[in-house]
Automatic annotation (TrEMBL):
Transferase found in the keyword field: yes
Organism the protein comes from: Chitinophaga caseinilytica
NCBIfam families in the record: pcaI_scoA_fam
Name listed for the protein in its UniProt record: CoA transferase subunit A
Lineage, uppermost ranks: Bacteria, Pseudomonadati, Bacteroidota, Chitinophagia, Chitinophagales
SUPFAM superfamilies in the record: NagB/RpiA/CoA transferase-like
């Protein structure tokens, strides 16, 4: 089965207004730069975006925030984006801040078909409002629901036309779980190879989860915050 599409514009062509998207990466590391740019060009609106972060001004998801294409952000870290802050404080943007471990597990549970789980994170805080709680042993827990999405968009280091994906280091953090949790999974890769060229023991996401794949280009790979020791 050949899952290759020509480019990012073709890969995201059927994403409608109001869709829920997962976008992989960790901070600015391993984000699907080509697909984000294609979403800006397409002008799709009222998106709910699930991501570890909200990008920075003029890069990553910050590009979609700048063009007001995101209706709601579901993230665990949003501290590097002034436009995000402005939209949040003005009431233009809905925001669901989720503890990072809870976010990662909600995504993973969606990929495994498990509808809910219990976690101690957030108990006794605003996060617990309206949620079921239970006590196990001597500790209280919140019930959190799995978090699926209409589309999962990830960037991998290598992939083949069957959709098998290999990530590098930190880029794997959320992307491998997101690839399993989307109803439709789109992967852009730095290197597209023929089947059989990937070591099966190194494949992080089997191709059965991936619906479309293409070779990306012109990656900036920006560093979110550079620290230099003198």
């Amino acid at each position: 089965m050949n899952k290759i599409v020509a480019n990012a514009d073709e890969a995201i062509a059927d994403i409608p207004n109001g869709a829920t998207l997962m976008l992989g990466g960790f901070g600015l590391c391993g984000i699907p730069e080509n697909c984000i740019a294609a979403l800006v060009r397409k002008g799709v609106s009222n998106l709910t975006c699930i991501s570890n972060n909200a990008g920075v001004d003029d890069f990553g998801l910050g590009l979609l925030l700048k063009t007001r294409q995101i209706k709601k952000m579901m993230s665990s870290y949003v501290g590097e984006n002034a436009e995000f802050e402005r939209q949040l404080l003005s009431g233009e943007l809905e925001v669901d801040l989720i503890p990072q471990g809870t976010l990662a597990t909600r995504i993973a549970m969606a990929g495994m078909g498990i509808p809910a789980f219990f976690t101690p994170a957030g108990f006794g805080t605003e996060i617990a409002e309206g949620k079921e709680t239970r006590r196990f042993g001597e500790k209280d827990y919140l019930m959190e629901l799995a978090l699926p999405a209409d589309f999962a968009i990830v960037k991998a280091w290598k992939g083949d036309r069957m959709g098998n994906l290999v990530f590098r280091k930190t880029t794997r953090n959320f992307s491998s779980s997101m690839a399993r949790a989307g109803n439709v999974t789109i992967a852009e890769v730095e290197e597209l190879v023929e089947p059989g060229q990937l070591d099966p023991d190194e494949v992080h996401v089997p191709g059965i989860y991936v619906h479309r794949i293409f070779q990306g280009h012109d990656y900036e790979k920006r560093i979110e915050r550079k620290t230099v020791k003198i």
